[in-house]
Design goal:
- It is a single chain.
- Helix 1 runs antiparallel to helix 5, helix 1 runs antiparallel to helix 6 and helix 2 (30-51) runs parallel beside helix 6 (146-166).
- The chain has helices spanning 13-25, 30-51, 62-71, 77-96, 101-122, 146-166, 172-185, 190-203, 267-280, 341-349, 352-361, 365-368, 377-391, 407-420, 434-446, 455-458, 480-488; strands at residues 207-208, 226-233, 243-250, 253-260, 301-305, 320-324, 333-335, 396-398, 427-431, 461-462, 475-479, 503-506, 509-511, 514-516, 520-523.
- The longest helix is centred in the N-terminal third of the chain and has 22 residues, at 30-51.
- The chain has 3 domains: 4-187, no CATH class; 201-348, no CATH class; 352-523, P-loop containing nucleotide triphosphate hydrolases (Rossmann fold), CATH 3.40.50.300.
- By secondary structure, it is an alpha/beta fold.
- The strands form 3 sheets. The protein has a 7-stranded mixed beta sheet with strand order 1-2-3-4-5-6-7.
Length: 524
Amino acid sequence: MASNFDFLNKDFPVLANFGQLAEKYCFSDSNSCLMKLGMIGETIVNLMFTYDRIRFPEDNTAVKRITKLQKEGLLTSDLVSILHELRKKRNLAVHENYSSVEDGKALLQIAYSLCEWFMQTYGDYNYVHHEFVMPIKRQDPIVADKQREREKESALMQQAEFEAKKAQDIPREERLKRAGEAASQRQRSEVETRYLIDEQLRQVGWEADTNKLRYSKGTRPMKGHNMAIAEWPTDSTVGNRGRVDYALFVGTRMVGVIEAKAEHKDIPSVIDYQGKDYPKNIREEDCSYQIGTWGDYKVPFTFATNGRPYLKQYETKSGIWFLDLRKPYNVPKALHGWVSPEGILELLEKDIESKNRKLQEMKYDFLKDERGLALREYQFKAVQAAEQAILDGKQNILLAMATGTGKTRTILGMIYRFLKTERFRRILFLVDRTALGEQAEDVFKEVKLEELMTLDDIYNIKGLDDKTIEKETRIQIATVQGMVKRILYNDGESMPSVTDYDLIICDEYDIIGQVRRRPILKAS
């Protein structure tokens, strides 16, 4: 039987071999299937370095290699997501003997699409997309000679590296153009979209599996479980026969719906159409799952996405779009990640208007108290200006403060007022060097505020050495590198959710190549 990966035989036999073996083992040995698919991703990455004469990173890990290729402009965000998913599943298969036929079937299609992109970028530029055909489950037992397989793979990899080294140099601009065009034309299947969304939801704490956790397969909300149940029926007459792609349940409470769309769709328009229609048409028999009504809406939150990571230049066709349906004046906004179940509950409890009033009513006396912060007039005005920007609904605020002007003390006063009035629940204080984090931590532990207590006396502060996020944590001090590692380098463990921190303070900002001491506030 022909393989989907046969088109690689002439130009990239090493990839053809991995793909053919992955298909062969898909149903009989899914552990081996996932390993072979992971090798497709790893081989493609390594060959890209060789073809384009790019120096490998000093810390030559798989993650660092993928990141460098993205920085070089050769990999788009969705290709990066695919490569990381292939890498993670291979690691699980190798180190934990993980196996899953469903994962194998989904990743076969995704790896095939990746290979088509690679062919159009590094091989036959005129290659035309062909539809993937799922291999048929074989009835006869598969006899495998794994030693011979490894020997063949090793020989093919050496051959591939040799061919890449002697290949004609392609001007950088031309390669980037080809990579970009191939990426923009790459066919993304519904399987890929759903698979990536499932994985993204799982990483922030939802139970999600489009193939298993489906309404039609009997999945229903359960106490103690936070589930994204696929294909939940509604009385809506739009879309997929009234079935919303996912319904989100915290325990037995329906808290949101998700509509997943193809990449060419304008996502905010999906929110305005199906994203608003499904929450209006929850079935009468499901009313026991409702937690309230807000005008015509029976669900508080609605989301829409195509599974692609958020890109500002493709804002309406990437990211996760979110709308809080509880207030008629709310508008859809793009998120860089999913909201966790805990974050959903905190959003339900949050009353920004009342917290803003508390912030406005709180006196500033302690900021100027000689026994406390004793802020100077310009520092005091900086606090007032930042707060007013928050009250005006601004999400990004830049404070320009030169070295030695008391930046950390100014921010300390601001943090205390935000936490005291509960305007923000959890703050991330982000620094680019460990020394700056330690310096900030010392200030938080030593400078007196009200009643001669320090910020550390009053609130739960997590320092640089403690990376866990707990509900009681109010301030987390972290390095940029540490947060990047938690987001990009994790292999299946939980990731930070977009609602873990509702205020991020960046301790420094790099402008035109010069590091200036400029705190930046990013509020939600």
